[in-house]
């Protein structure tokens, strides 16, 4: 993949949609910079840039719920990534849900938690 062709925003970030490679369920959306994308490609595990913590991080570094990368695609504008993964562990969301997209537009949770965030992270999220 020619990462130089990608269009990063003014902060050097590109949105990455993370999708289950088998079920096609969208698990999460996070941001990557060049370093996190290159590390993702090199290691085969997703890595991101945290805007809130200004920190590079590997998905699952605390929970053990890592994501094994199967493919990395970019859209026609080259400004968004789609990363298909095998999700290890019960979920991708730090709240304990399998997917970060568990709330409908009215605010109703449409799926139950897949694991206890309190037990995994040692605090209430």
Structure description:
- This protein has helices at 34-43, 117-121, and strands at residues 14-20, 26-32, 47-50, 55-58, 67-74, 81-87.
- By secondary structure, the chain is an alpha+beta fold.
- The mean pLDDT is 93.
In short:
This protein is of the alpha+beta class. The protein contains 2 helices and 6 strands; from the N terminus they run ββαββββα.
Give the topology.
Elements: E1 14-20, E2 26-32, H1 34-43, E3 47-50, E4 55-58, E5 67-74, E6 81-87, H2 117-121
Parallel strand pairs: 1-6
Antiparallel strand pairs: 1-2, 3-4, 5-6
Strand order, main sheet: write it out.
Answer: 2-1-6-5
Share of residues in strands:
25-35%
Radius of gyration based on Cα positions: 15 Å
How many helices does DSSP assign?
A: 2
Basic shape: globular
Keywords:
alpha+beta; four-stranded mixed sheet; 125 residues; 30% strand; 2 helices
């Amino acid at each position: 993949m020619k990462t130089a062709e990608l269009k990063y925003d003014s902060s050097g970030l590109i949105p990455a949609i993370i999708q289950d490679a088998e079920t096609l369920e969208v698990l999460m959306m996070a941001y990557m910079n060049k370093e996190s994308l290159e590390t993702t490609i090199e290691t085969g595990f997703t890595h991101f840039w945290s805007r809130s913590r200004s920190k590079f991080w590997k998905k699952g570094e605390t929970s053990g719920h890592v994501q094994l990368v199967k493919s990395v695609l970019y859209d026609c504008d080259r400004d968004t990534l789609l990363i298909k993964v095998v999700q290890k562990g019960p979920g991708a969301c730090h709240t304990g849900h399998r997917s970060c997209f568990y709330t409908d537009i009215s605010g109703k949770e449409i799926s139950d938690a897949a694991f206890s965030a309190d037990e995994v992270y040692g605090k209430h999220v």
